[in-house]
Structures are given as C-alpha cells and as structure tokens.
Amino acid sequence: MAHARTTYTKVAAPRVLSGIEITPLRIDIFKYLMICMMVFTVVSVFHVWSRFKLVDLNLQISEVSRQLSEAGQEQKRLKLEAASLKAPARIEAIAKNELGMALPTEQQVIHVK
Question: What's the rounded Cα separation, in Å, for the pair 24 and 113?
C-alpha cells in the first residue's frame, strides 16, 4: 500500500475580528425590525388588555343581571305581602281580637243631616 502524501501549500489564515464593519444596510434592517417589534408589542399589550376588560365587563353584567332578578323576586314577594296585610278580613280580625274593638250598635250610630 502506497501512501500518497499530499502537500498543502496554501492554508487559509483566520480572519481578524477586531475591526467588524457594519454596513448601513444592516443598520436600516435593524431599525426596521426594532420598530416592527415595538409595534407588535404595543398591539399585543392592547389586545390582552381589551380581552381582560371584556371578561371583566361580562362578569359585571352577569352580576348586575343576577341582582336585578333577585330585586324582581323581592318586589313580587313584597307586593304579595302588602296585599295580604291590607285585606279587610285581616284588619277586622286584628281589631276584634287584639284591640278589643267591635262594630257599633244602633244606639252608637248618629246620623248627621
């Protein structure tokens, strides 16, 4: 087996990174990307805030609807209670039993003309 010997006469020397040159095109692209990222961030924050506000308002609406329903039921209950308290039979029974009142007799009634 014959070994072939290869000679390398030219070797690439490492580049020196001390003087990195930034072209104006790269600066323009960087500015454009930064502006896009800031706009995207602002839009994202606004979107999240609006969704949060929407959920909060829906919770408030459902709470107010529940309170309205409870108030309507309370109003119906109070109307029924007021109607039962104004019943003439109830008032007459309280007057006779608790207050000791009675209907006037013929001698107690005076007709005014």
Answer: 116
SS (H, E, C) the chain: CCCCCCCCCCCCCCCCCCCCCCCHHHHHHHHHHHHHHHHHHHHHHHHHHHHHHHHHHHHHHHHHHHHHHHHHHHHHHHHHHHHHHCCHHHHHHHHHHCCCCCCCCHHHCCCCC
| Structure-token match 């896009």, residue found | 36
For 39-51, write each residue's pLDDT tens digit: 999 999 999 999 9
Chain segment 69-82, per-residue pLDDT in tens: 999 999 999 999 99
Using a cut of 0.70, tell me whether the model's pTM lies above it: no
Q: What angle do CA 100, 103, 108 make, to 5 degrees?
A: 110
Angle CA 72–77–78, to nearest 5: 95
